[in-house]
């Protein structure tokens, strides 16, 4: 049985053409492979459509987080306890990595059945066009992949990434306890928090300047499989969250503030009470954009059972590993496939 997130994805290999990114440094015009149809979705940048900014030190933080998860499936978090220098170091390492020549980055190319290293977004096969994006995925130690790129100079990258992972995990655990308390989850269902065999990953993202940003897509609309995701984004707009009735709402960067969004696992566990945020990334013609996502989920064998209080279960009970498998084959339809509600 698979015991790590990386092993869970081995059963769902990708074709190489869905893994190898374009060499964006040599591109002057938008290729047809990356030209998306003009979107008819509308953007909303009004003051009434802003995801909440929550101070983790606020005495009402737990209540505010619960409300944000119900209404948006996302919030921005300040006073989160992670030193700004830690976040800046990770961003600098991401910039150093993605600035390398394509042939150097390709030394750490993700294998067809692999889940770590350099490559396109894993959701790529589900869309007819490619995304204006490069990624580098870390699960566990980053050293094996880093050694391929920097054979004699990988220690700095590894140390910074491992420290970031450790600090993000501690923050995720704190947020999970607050979320579970707001949901009144039983002690038995909380037991996995703090265990050593969690499903966790760090994803470094790079969205280069694009010659025709209105016809390109940085990251196509999707929800995260995770329990929750903690994201640092550079001070460049691009992330958008979809809210019914409001359209695509930009998540404007604020200094030393992290974005937190709920994923499918928490949506299932909360019996649809908490949204799973549908999000996408747009690109621009003048600035590179970087982000670092930390994905946090229970162990693969954890049984996700909807919390039912005076209602019927909206989803069938299943393990984390089983859900990962369903979503690996049905990106946008995974939740409907396990729905107990008959239309």
TrEMBL record:
Report keywords, A-Z: Dioxygenase, Iron, Metal-binding, Oxidoreductase
User: Pathway, per Swiss-Prot/TrEMBL?
Assistant: Plant hormone biosynthesis; gibberellin biosynthesis; Hormone biosynthesis
Membrane as a keyword? Answer: no
Fe2OG dioxygenase domain: residues covered: 195-298
Q: Which GO molecular-function terms appear in the entry?
A: gibberellin 3-beta-dioxygenase activity; metal ion binding
Any GO BP: gibberellin biosynthetic process
> Matching InterPro entries, A to Z?
DIOX_N, IPNS-like_FE2OG_OXY, IPNS-like_sf, Iron_ascorbate_oxido_reductase, Oxoglu/Fe-dep_dioxygenase_dom
Cofactors? L-ascorbate
Which one Pfam family would you cite for this protein?
2OG-FeII_Oxy
Tell me which EC number(s) this protein carries.
1.14.11.15
Protein family according to the UniProt entry = Belongs to the iron/ascorbate-dependent oxidoreductase family. GA3OX subfamily.
Q: What is this protein called?
A: gibberellin 3beta-dioxygenase
Question: What is the species of this protein?
Answer: Abrus precatorius (Indian licorice)
Gene name in the database record: LOC113847832
